[in-house]
Amino acid sequence: MKKKQTKLWFLIPLILFFGLVVILYMRLGKPTDIVTNTALERPVPTFELPLLADTTRTITNDNLPDKPFLLNVWGSWCPTCVIEHPFLMQLEERGVDIVGVNYKDEIGNALSYLNRGGDPFSMSIQDSLGQFALDLGITGAPETFVVDGDGIIRQHIVGEINEANWQQRVKPCLTVLNKANKNNDSPDLIQVEEMCK
After folding, report:
1. Which Pfam families match (predicted)?
2. Rg (Cα) of the chain, in Å, rounded?
3. Which is nearest to 101 in space by CA: 66, 166, 147?
């Protein structure tokens, strides 16, 4: 009787292992990206955080641009942010307004990063605890949000912005929002739906 019970105990890990193999096999070829859109079509979450360049200054929603802009979550520790950074510099040269959210970073490291690679941001907010970024619904860095002139988030880009997704996704969205802002009008929601998703 004891031998039979001992054999059963040895079978349990084997059964669990095969169960796990079956579950993993069923997931093969399926997308693994998790995309959260918790902030889409909502105002930028309320925040009160220090300015990275001068931590004695507090930045709030009132300090955000009153025209369409990009809100880019970045960190000096983030390898993909390093890859994305030169393209952000190009966007800044093209006149695109980018507000940075420095996510869970040391001030010294973040400032050194900007000194080395250039500063594409009209301002960078220091989110050392990461709460503001979580309120935005990010899953990591870099992530970018297209915000309209009324402070409503219209698009969420997970991962780096590069020339391809800029031309295909981000620029068309920003163009629609800028056109509405220039006419002192609210963006056409049908166009926003079409261009910003």
Report:
1. Redoxin
2. 22
3. 147
Closest CA to 60 of 69, 49, 44, 52: 49
The single-letter DSSP state of residue 63 is G
Asked if the model's pLDDT at residue 193 lies above 60, the reply is: yes
Q: Which long-range contacts (CB under 8 A, 24 or more apart) does 135-138 make?
A: 135/39, 135/45, 135/47, 136/38, 136/39, 136/44, 136/45, 136/71, 136/73, 136/101, 137/36, 137/37, 137/38, 137/39, 138/36, 138/73, 138/103
Q: What is the mean pLDDT of residues 14-18?
A: 69
Q: What is the average pLDDT across 88-117? A: 97
Instruction: Output the CA–CA distances (angstroms, integers) from residue 88 to 16, 100, 150, 157, in the order listed.
Output: 48, 10, 23, 14
Asked whether the predicted pLDDT for residue 48 surpasses 50, the reply is: yes
Return the CATH superfamily for domain 48-159.
Glutaredoxin (3.40.30.10)
CA distance 81 to 9: 49
Strand partners, 147: 69, 153
Instruction: Please provide residue 64's backbone torsions phi and psi, each rounded to the nearest 5 degrees.
Output: -70, 155
What residue spans define the domains of the chain?
A: 48-159
What whole-number percentage of the chain has pLDDT above 90? 69
**pLDDT, tens only, 119-144:** 999 999 999 999 999 999 998 899 99
Q: Is residue 130 classed as helix, strand or coil in its secondary structure?
A: coil
